[in-house]
């Protein structure tokens, strides 16, 4: 989903669009983790509280892929 464009301020700050904050339940003091890929093609923000469920989902996906490969 595309929420809009933001501008980086002099102090390196950006404002997350209101609709994105509402949809993602981001409130003041919410901790966000900032990631990039190996080629530095962009940034990804994830709520710190949600990282555990993301990692668990990725582990499940990897296990599913491995099972399919083993069966093939």
Task: Provide a descriptive summary of the structure in words.
It contains 2 helices and 2 strands. With 72 residues, the chain is of the alpha+beta class. The longest helix has 21 residues, at 51-71. The N and C termini lie far apart (35 Å).
Query: How many H/I helical runs?
Result: 2
Mean pLDDT comes to: 92
- Write down the secondary-structure element order: HEEH
The whole-angstrom Rg is 16 Å
Strand order of the largest sheet: 1-2
Distance between the first and last residues' Cα: 35 Å
Cα shape: elongated
Which range best describes the helical content: under 10%, 10-25%, 25-40%, 40-55%, 55-70% or over 70%? 25-40%
Structural class: alpha+beta
Poorly predicted regions: none
How many beta-strand segments?
Answer: 2
Largest sheet: 2 strands, antiparallel
Q: In percent, how much strand structure appears in the residues? A: 5-15%
């Amino acid at each position: 989903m595309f929420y809009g464009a933001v501008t980086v301020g002099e102090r390196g700050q950006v404002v997350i669009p209101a609709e994105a904050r509402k949809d993602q339940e981001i409130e003041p003091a919410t901790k966000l983790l900032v990631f990039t890929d190996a080629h530095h093609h962009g940034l990804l923000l994830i709520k710190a509280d949600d990282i555990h469920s993301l990692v668990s989902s990725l582990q499940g996906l990897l296990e599913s892929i491995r099972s399919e490969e083993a069966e093939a």
